[in-house]
Amino acid sequence: MPRSLAYEPRNALNAICPYFTMFPLEYPLRVLRGHCKSSPVVMDPFCGRGTTLFAARQLGLVSRGIDSSPVAVAIARAKLCKIDVSATLDLAQHYIKNDEAEDLPDTEFFKHAFSPTVLQQICAIRSALLRTRRDNDSTALLRAVMLGCLHGPRSKSIDNQAYLSNQMPRTFCAKPDYSVRYWRANELTPPDIDIISILRRKLSLLRHSRLHNNVSLADARLGDSRLAQSLPKHNRDFSIVITSPPYYGMKTYVEDQWLRNWFLGGASYVQLNKNAQLTHSSQNVFAESLGSVWKNMGRTHANDLHMYIRFGVIPSKKVNPKKMIRDSLDASGISWRIVSTRPAATASSGRRQADHMSIKSAAATEFDFHVCRR
User: In the list 36, 120, 239, 315, which could disulfide-bond 40, CB 3.0-4.6 Å?
Assistant: First the structure.
C-alpha cells in the first residue's frame, strides 16, 4: 500500500495540529490536479483544519475556506502562512518573557492537566495572542502550533515529549471530570517541560515545506456557510468546491475542542450546544440546512461550478447518505447534475469521523459526489 501523503516531510504544515474528521490530503489533490490547467479558485465551505486550502496552495491555486469553529479557522489559517520558524519562536519567547499570564484558570482540571510553570507560560502566550488586533504570519503560525501542542499523549522520554499536557487524546479533549478521574486513578502527573523546546521541535518539521505564497490569511474565514453574509462579493470567484460536511447526528465538534477553544479566548469549561454548523433535529431539517450551503455556493460569479463532496453517516443513524445528499441538493433550489457517486477510496476513510470521536460502531461508508451546476 502506498505511503500516505500525511507522512511526507513536505506536508508537515498540514499536520500542524491534530484535528478530528480531517479528510486525507490525497482527495483534494486528486480532484484539483484534474482542473489545474484552468487555474480555478477553490472553495471549501466546511474547511475544518484547512486540508483543501493546503492542497490548493501546493498546486499554486487561490482558495477560500469558511468554518463556524474558531479552532478550525485558527488551524486553517496556518496553512496560508509564510513560514518563518525563527520569527515565530522569537515571538513565543517574547510573549513568555514580557507578557503577564491573565485569567489563570484554577480548576482541578487545569491543576492536573499542566504543571504550574507550563500553565503560566501557556497563559502568557494566550493573553498576548488575544490582544493581537491584526494577525500576521508569525502570530497565526504560533497560535496554530500552540493548539497542536496543547494536549496529547505523554512520551516515555521527556526529550521526546511533543505535547504540553498530562496524558490526553490528540484530536479532541475529554471532559474535565472524566480527565481528572483518569489522571488520579492512574497516578499521572503533568510534565514539567520547556515550552520553547517543544515549539522548536514542532516548527523544525516545517523546514521541508515548499509552498506557493499567493495566499492570504483572510482567505480562511470564521462564518456560517448557510448565510449569504459569509460569502462577500469579492469572494464569489470560485469555480471548484471541495468539501466534507459533518456527518448527520455528529454535532459536538466545538464541545470536543473545548480546551483549544479556551486557548482562543473561550470559556475554561465545556459549553454545550455551541455553534452547530448544521441543524440536526431531523433528516429533513439537516438536508434543508445543508441545502442552504449549496445555495450559497451557487452564488459564485463563475460560469461553471463543480462541487466535490465527501459525505458519510453514523451507522447508528441508519441514514442513506446518497439520498441525503440528493435531498440537500434539491433543497438548495438550484439545478444540479450529479456527475458521479462512488465509495471513498479506502475502508478506513469511512471511519475517520467515528474513530476520532470514539464512537464504537461499525465503519460507515463515505461517498464521493461530483456535482455540477446546470
Answer: 239
